[in-house]
Structures are given as structure tokens and as C-alpha cells.
Write a structure and sequence with these properties.
Family: Belongs to the DEF8 family.
Shape: elongated
Biased composition (Basic and acidic residues): 17-38
InterPro entries: C1-like_sf (IPR046349), DEF8 (IPR051366), DEF8_C1 (IPR047983), PKC_DAG/PE (IPR002219), RH_dom (IPR025258)
Number of helices: 16
Structural class: alpha+beta
GO molecular function: zinc ion binding
Largest sheet: 4 strands, antiparallel
Strand order of the largest sheet: 1-2-3-4
Protein name: Phorbol-ester/DAG-type domain-containing protein
């Protein structure tokens, strides 16, 4: 029987080409012609071992011979693809058969089981994924996760992904636990110590490595300065905090998988005290000076809001819910703050929030306006607020004065002097 005739019969009658029993039943009782004996052998070759019903759902467990048969069929399929005319219909059908064979082989090697939805291992909290995406890579074996036929898990803390079959092989603890116990950055730029200090082994899994790539390629992490194997270092890139603080450099550098996750989890944590780590940075980066002034003004506005019913109902402070440290202090920064400062996004958003806050205090709310100050030195001009430009604030009584009235040359502010004359404060 010719191939095209068999293909036509399949398309018309919806015959399963992988089930030989249906074909045998349709030709039962008929003697094949003698001239078809040669073409019959070629048809069997085109079956590629698919005469057996490899795609029906198995009953019980598979034996090893089923896997061997599928491997032989895959090898035969590859050979035929190379021999058949390019872009021909037969070659296209053979490619489709090859794909199905490989999927079936993978299913036999990794049979689906009733896996728990949550598993805890080395402080990882693994959650079973339902996505059928095939664009994920297993962090343990560095192979593709075939979501269509494989069970896989993701750690809800550090987003470590792996096959269910790789779960018992994991030896890396969850990075989020390190973030919780040790929330600080390595502030030295690429602190390299050399492969000899690592005994020519991967800093994480202890696999033998070398710069010549024998037996495994050594890849350096720009954050830790150590060398890793290709399974622990995928050439991912990240912005390095030490380079930002010391050089104001934001070019992403290659880091290992663990460092990449650690930096991703730490990027929004305010753990950088710039005035202690590198105070000279404010002399060379004008944007940082502007951001510092806006943050200081917001801290001066905060007492108005927490004592204003209208401000509490409007939840004005929630404008900074993504940067809570901005309403707590003015000297702690996160790496994301510095990245947004460099790009200009932080200055724009913070200026807009500053304007909204000032509008409420000075224009919209009468109660907040009543908490303003008159300059005790000149006793003229508009109502002053501590966040206004060209004003000075007493550090003891927090009274506000015009800076142009030489308040800075006074030893004591007039309000403090008056209180001292009237007796101690209650």
C-alpha cells in the first residue's frame, strides 16, 4: 500500500496511525498483492516502531523494554528525517512522530505521581506549579522543565525552581533565610581571592573547575569575587551595590545564581547608610542632594499628617507605601532608590509627592495651616512652615524663622529665651 494512500485513509477515516490493530482490522481477510511486499517493508520502517500503541494510557508500570523500543524508534525516525527529501510531506509527518516519541519517552522516564502541593526543604517552601510553560529551567539539573508532562516546584521565598525528581538532590538553602538573618551587602568591589584558595573547586557545589575549562569552566561572580561551575553560574547579570556606592556605576555584571537571587531579594531593603559608607558621594551626585532635601522635608511634614484627621482619612502617607523608610529617616537608602535616582524616576515621583503633601498643609487643611509659625525676628511676612525654603528651625523648640534675618548668628532663639525667663518647661 502506498504511503499517500495510507495517509488519505487516515485523514478520511480518522484512523490512529499509531495503532496497528485498527489497520489490521480494516485489512483483515484480504490477501496483500505480491507487488506490495517491497513497499510493505518500507511502510513498516515509516511506522518507526509505532505499530505498538505507545500513546495509549498504560495499565500498570512500564518495563525497561518499552523505553528501549522507544529509543530505537527515535533513532530510526532521525535516520529517516535525514534521508527523506527536504520539506516533503513525509519528512514533516516524520518530524511530528519524532516529537511525540520523545514526549512519550520523557513521560516514561519521569512518570507523574501524586505529589504534595507544598514541601519544606532546607528552609525552602516549595509550591507545586500548575503552569504548563516550557520556558523554565531547573536550577538543580540545569535542564528544561517540560511543564506539559513534568511536575515541578517553585520556592515561594527565593523562587528556586526544580523538577519534582530533583527535590531530594537539592543542597542549597533558601536565600531568603540569609536575607532575614544577614541583611547587608558585600561592599568591596569584586573581592577575588583566587582559585587556589578555593582548592580549584566551585565555591558552592565543590565541583572541580579551572579557567581552561577542564574538567569544568570556572566562572567568576562579580558580587562575591568567587568562582563557580556552569551549573551554579548561568552568566546572569545584576547591578552590583559596591560599584554603585563607590563608583556610581550601574552596569550589570555577571553573577552566580545564588548572588542573583540574593540581590533580587535585597534590592528594595534600605540597608545602605551612604553618609557613613561614602559621604563624598553627595559632593559629586547632585541628584542625591536633591533627594536628601525632599526626604528631610517629608519628615518635617509627617507630624502634621499624624495629628490631622483629614490627612489620616485621606491616607496621604500611603503615597510612600513602596518606600516606607522615607517616612522613618533620611539617611538610609535601598539599592532600588539609588537606581531610580540615577535614572531620574525617583526625583520626579518624590517631587510630585512633596507637592501633594505641601498643598494639603498650606492650602487645603485649615487645621494644618493653624500650626504654622510667624517669624519672631521680623514679625512680618507669610506663615512659615519648617519645610519651606529659606527658613531655619530651632533644634530645641522647633520654631521657624526666616533664614535671611541672620538667625544662624544667634546663640539662642527668642522663644527659647522667653521660656527660660518664665521658668522651666513642664
Amino acid at each position: 500500500m502506498e504511503y499517500n494512500e495510507r495517509l488519505a485513509r487516515f485523514r478520511q477515516g480518522h484512523v490512529n496511525p499509531f495503532d496497528r490493530r485498527e489497520i489490521d482490522s480494516s485489512t483483515e481477510g484480504k490477501d496483500p498483492p505480491k507487488h506490495e511486499s517491497k513497499t510493505q517493508s518500507s511502510d513498516r520502517a515509516m511506522d518507526l516502531g509505532l505499530a505498538e500503541d505507545h500513546f495509549s494510557r498504560p495499565v500498570g508500570s512500564f518495563v525497561a523494554s518499552d523505553v528501549e523500543q522507544l529509543k530505537q524508534a527515535i533513532a530510526e525516525c532521525k535516520r529517516l528525517i535525514l534521508e527523506l527529501p527536504e520539506h516533503s510531506e513525509k519528512q514533516k509527518d516524520t518530524v511530528i512522530k519524532l516529537i511525540h516519541l520523545r514526549l512519550k519517552l520523557q513521560e516514561l522516564k519521569d512518570p507523574e505521581e501524586d505529589e504534595p502541593n507544598l514541601q519544606v526543604l532546607l528552609e525552602h517552601r516549595f509550591s507545586k506549579e500548575k503552569s504548563k510553560s516550557v520556558k523554565q529551567m531547573c536550577d538543580k539539573c540545569s535542564t528544561i522543565i517540560w511543564g506539559l508532562i513534568q511536575t515541578w516546584y517553585t520556592c515561594t521565598g527565593c523562587y528556586y525552581r526544580c523538577h519534582s525528581k530533583c527535590m531530594n538532590l537539592i543542597n542549597k538553602p533558601c536565600v531568603r533565610s540569609k536575607v532575614s538573618h544577614q541583611s547587608e551587602y558585600e561592599l568591596s568591589i569584586c573581592p577575588e581571592v583566587g582559585l587556589d584558595k578555593q582548592d580549584y573547586r566551585c565555591a558552592e557545589c565543590r565541583t572541580p573547575i579551572s579557567l581552561r575549562g577542564v574538567p569544568n569552566e570556572a566562572r567568576q561572580c562579580d558580587y562575591t569575587g568567587q568562582y563557580y561551575c556552569s551549573s551554579c553560574h548561568w552568566n546572569d547579570t545584576a547591578i552590583i551595590p559596591s560599584r554603585v556606592i563607590h563608583n556610581w556605576e550601574f552596569e550589570p555584571r555577571q553573577v552566580c545564581r545564588t548572588s542573583m537571587r540574593y540581590l533580587a531579594l535585597m534590592i528594595s531593603r534600605p540597608v545602605l547608610k551612604l553618609k557613613e559608607i561614602n559621604p563624598l558621594l553627595f559632593n559629586f551626585v547632585e541628584e542625591l542632594v536633591e533627594i536628601r532635601k525632599l526626604r528631610q522635608d517629608i519628615l518635617l511634614m509627617k507630624p502634621y499628617f499624624i495629628t490631622c484627621k483629614e490627612a489620616m482619612e485621606a491616607r496621604l502617607l500611603l503615597h510612600l507605601q513602596d518606600r516606607q523608610h522615607f517616612v522613618e529617616n533620611d539617611d538610609m537608602y535601598s539599592l532600588q532608590d539609588l537606581i531610580d535616582t540615577s535614572s531620574g524616576r525617583l526625583s520626579c515621583s518624590l517631587t510630585e509627592i512633596h507637592t501633594t503633601f505641601a498643598k494639603h498643609i498650606k492650602l487645603d487643611c485649615e487645621k494644618c495651616q493653624a500650626k504654622g509659625f510667624m517669624c519672631e525676628l521680623c514679625k512680618e511676612g507669610d506663615i512659615l512652615f519648617p519645610f519651606d525654603n529659606h527658613t531655619s528651625v530651632c533644634h530645641d523648640c522647633f520654631a521657624v524663622f526666616h533664614s535671611c534675618k541672620h538667625y544662624g548668628f544667634l546663640l539662642l532663639c527668642p522663644i527659647c529665651v522667653r521660656h527660660l525667663a518664665n521658668g522651666p518647661w513642664v
